[in-house]
């Protein structure tokens, strides 16, 4: 484990502002930077120490030499490496990473240094690939291929986190890379703000993948692959100071948000491991890409840049606090090797041979193997747990999708039900109307005097036929454009919190309402045209409506069946979760075993020491060969015991211990137990023989007899202790056996559960398929119904026209009738 290397660099004051207050308020002494009030009084609360502090006169060459060089060299050796610049806008990040013509920055120096280094390594051959990307407004663009925009991040078991579709150029010399960088720079987003005429509006990541292998083509040689990331972050900015508006404002908001997430990640990582909760790497593309550099397996350095001007003091303090927290982060860098099968085999053989040499003639090997086996088992459990966890999460996601799908179906069915109810109601109305219009013998009584001029009034109760819109429609969410929803990010308060190490509540910064509605307009915004229809049913359509109704009932039944299956699936998943918890507990038990073994072993060591001390005290002639042999044996055994103790502590600390896995567990324990017993018994019997010998020679001498008694009692105490240790060992063995059995049982159960889950998965997918078919059926039904409604409307229109024509004709008939009548009256009056 090694800490991230953190340095601070103060840029020279801007020419137009210099000298603002005579001299800088920041004082640098060795690797410490502190804020001084005027008259040179230091402010104690604002004093920070880092790995390096570079003052205004420092050059990129010195920064590279002291901070980055080692990481670049390590990258050539196979370690992942990352260097990035962090700081407020215009504080000198790009100057540090890219540099100027006279003083090239870290990126250019690294490129040259990598090739110089490679030329010095004569026994390996190298393959270098480079890529250059930027994260602009939370979208990844390829700077080496402009057509590659909005690239996605993916995760792979072996490759880790990677950007899909990013162009990687294979290069053979430094100049080629520098040309590529120049071409990439052209595509980078820069913009002018009040703070910086050439301000980076995106985070850029220049990446070199360095692969190497031995030149002699030895099959035992592994391929080393390391990734070197050189990152120039965009600077945090206060909108009031940058005077940003329009595009610049949007960019500023995205920049501040991603830096805030980076700050959150650093905060969480700087907490002690116990307090550390979930690290929110996934909250931004930047933190996802930098994940290996932050708490991962890379060698990392951060250069935090600050502006010396007095009006930037608050921002500079924020940057220094960020740097202080970053300093607490530890990474676990290791050479990244890809081993071929042959290389792996050869390497393991060598390791085994080495161990054998080390522990030759001792039983420690058995213990070693045991330890290795145990650590392997633990690793296996942990991997299994991780895998099950991922599966479970996937399962839950599927469930949610299913739930969502079922809800949608429910809404549709409810709409259809409404429609059918509505149609029934209208049908009743129609029937009432028709029965009103019919004479008792079934004939239409259109000439009924009570209804003259007799136009049928289908609209009489039209308002009661209007069905209200579904909730889905009326409940459209108000969504604002994405940019406005980011308002929280860019305001100054939030910015200040960011700089003071405040952990932002990211939920506030989510785009949920706007984005959700943008992505699901079909679901949210779909109107339900049928339910707004104001139509009436005619008798000839009853049957069709009845058919539709029964179809809908069928669909409802099917939906209920699916719901039941879904509930079953939820239950099963819960069960799986319980099993997982049990498995975890088992793993904890197993993890505790090395501790217990270590204790038993320490006891064993004590007993052995007691035995040897007693033996030595029993022997009068210190120069005898027995004594020499005893001393020799004691030394060897003690050193062996110490080695084993170290191995145990390594296991407990979670380090890897080499060994072979050939023997079964119980055999190893048995061998150890027997060998310990034999050794101790032989030592004891020797000691007893010595005891008897001494006794026989000192017979009659009272003092010696007493001494003999004392020694005897000591020996019996030792014997008792030995028996106790032996029992403990037996118990441990039993415990291990029991744990192994329960683990096997659990594995079987997990297998069964997995099979069950798979079969449920299949059922679920079948159900989903059926649901889809049902949905399309429903769609068809809806279409039919639409057609029907249209037809009814047309009929209604026709009836209206007929009624109007009838009314006109009736009117003309009435007027004709009255005309005739008046004519007849006139004629009648004329007739004498
Ligand atoms: N150490 C330095 N020596 C000389 N000039 C510097 C130094 N650091 C920065 N500058 C100058 O200060 C100005 C701002 O620097 P730079 O563009 O590197 O800032 P930045 O932090 O990358 O800003 P932004 O985040 O807006 O991109 C530039 O004109 C740069 O040349």
Automatic annotation (TrEMBL):
Gene3D superfamilies, per the entry: Kinesin motor domain
InterPro entries noted in UniProt: Kinesin-like_fam, Kinesin_motor_CS, Kinesin_motor_dom, Kinesin_motor_dom_sf, P-loop_NTPase
Any one cellular-component term (Gene Ontology): microtubule
Kinesin motor domain mapped to chain residues: 3-329
Molecular function terms from GO: ATP binding; kinetochore binding; microtubule binding; microtubule motor activity
Family annotation (Pfam families): Kinesin (PF00225)
CDD domains assigned to the protein according to its UniProt record, in alphabetical order: KISc_CENP_E
Coiled coil ranges: 345-409, 538-586, 708-798
GO biological process, one term: regulation of cell cycle phase transition
Keywords: ATP-binding, Coiled coil, Microtubule, Motor protein, Nucleotide-binding
Keyword ATP-binding: yes
Binding site for ATP: 87-94
The family this protein is said to belong to: Belongs to the TRAFAC class myosin-kinesin ATPase superfamily. Kinesin family. KIN-7 subfamily.
Protein name: Kinesin-like protein
Species name: Capsella rubella
Organism phylogeny: Eukaryota, Viridiplantae, Streptophyta, Embryophyta, Tracheophyta
